[in-house]
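Please, structure for the following, as tokens.
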Amino acid sequence: MSNHSANPNPDARRGTGPRAREQAVKEPLWRQVVGGALRGERRAQGRTLKEVSEAARISMPYLSEIERGRKEASSEVLAAAAGALGLSLADLLALTQRDLAPADRRARPEASAAPSAPLRIAAVSRLPGPPPAGCGPARAVVRLGG
């Protein structure tokens, strides 16, 4: 008969101890970052989850799970959700940059020693009118901040 309480630190074996949890807090998951960007854009447009899910042909519960960072969506689903919001995948990636850059800086100490601060997206504004051929579903102006 084995005694499971013999190991004084069972978390050390599983990689779930305080250090592993601390590292997990610092680095956001892609599904959380992209979901937050989709939700933020949808809310900025004043659109409902139902409107966007219908336009993207994604079930409303699934889109909600994506926005909350609980589901890892395929590139096809992300493209459909972004397209329903008038964004290309490149636009969606640009919206996620502000959340990913700080984590990247913390992960690579040598990058934080750079003399200039990283650029951050301050605002994304859509340009009126149809986009030129080959430009994707929307044209936008990206204002960078320091």
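The mean pLDDT is 75. The chain is about 55% helix and 10% strand.
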